């Protein structure tokens, strides 16, 4: 019996010791962990935002690097049309768009920018035309789509008896590449 009382006393002492330890040492830890998890989540969101801004700024820097010219009359402006035409014809071939006509025009200065206009006549479906516009928009070059015309009149529908001919149509595009000219500051 004495043994049982001693054993019960030891178990009771361990229970009290555990409760006291839990109250003073461990009790506030779960709330601290929850608070730290919240802080970590906020820090991760800030880090992800910083990464997105960093990659966006790299894209902006690359965009300026490609489209910035240090001199207004630099021959680089005119020479830049050759790689653009190569890229454009490769894009048209990739999208399987039939090229009827491409004509670069003389460069034009608007404000601090130099525009090199192009006139294109292509034959494609609306879907491929949309993909072309999307690709032009995502290009590293600054491109302005000034105008596009497509003839979708009743005469075309009446004169064509094949559905396949109705899907593809001639589209005239007037686009310009834009070169940003570096303006020298006044001394």
Q: Could you give the topology of this structure?
A:
Layout: H1 2-26, H2 29-67, E1 68-69, H3 75-79, H4 81-94, E2 98-104, E3 108-110, E4 113-124, H5 126-137, E5 142-150, H6 154-159, H7 163-167, E6 169-181
Parallel strand pairs: 1-6
Antiparallel strand pairs: 2-4, 3-4, 4-6, 5-6
Task: Tag the structure with descriptive keywords.
187 residues, alpha+beta, Alpha-Beta Plaits, six-stranded mixed β-sheet, 7 helices
Describe the structure.
- The N and C termini lie far apart (104 Å).
- With 187 residues, the chain is α+β, with helices and mostly antiparallel strands.
- It is elongated and about 115 Å long.
- The mean pLDDT is 81.
- Helices cover 57% and strands 25% of the residues.
- It has seven helices and six strands.
- Strands 1, 2, 3, 4, 5 and 6 form a six-stranded mixed β-sheet that branches.
- The protein folds into two domains: 57 residues; 107 residues, Alpha-Beta Plaits.
């Amino acid at each position: 019996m004495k043994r049982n009382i001693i054993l019960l006393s030891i178990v009771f002492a361990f229970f009290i010791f555990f409760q006291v330890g839990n109250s003073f040492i461990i009790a506030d830890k779960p709330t601290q962990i929850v608070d730290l998890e919240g802080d970590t989540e906020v820090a991760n969101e800030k880090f992800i935002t910083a990464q997105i801004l960093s990659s966006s700024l790299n894209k902006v820097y690359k965009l300026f690097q490609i489209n910035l010219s240090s001199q207004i009359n630099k021959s680089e402006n005119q020479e830049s049309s050759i790689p653009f035409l190569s890229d454009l014809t490769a894009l048209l071939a990739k999208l399987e768009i039939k090229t009827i006509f491409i004509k670069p025009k003389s460069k034009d200065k608007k404000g601090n920018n130099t525009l090199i206009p192009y006139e294109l006549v292509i034959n494609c479906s609306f879907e491929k035309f949309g993909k072309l516009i999307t690709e032009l928009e995502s290009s590293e070059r600054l491109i302005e789509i000034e105008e596009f015309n497509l003839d979708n009149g009743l005469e075309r529908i009446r004169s064509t008896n094949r559905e396949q001919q109705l899907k593809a149509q001639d589209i005239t595009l007037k686009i310009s590449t834009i070169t940003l000219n570096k303006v020298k500051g006044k001394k």
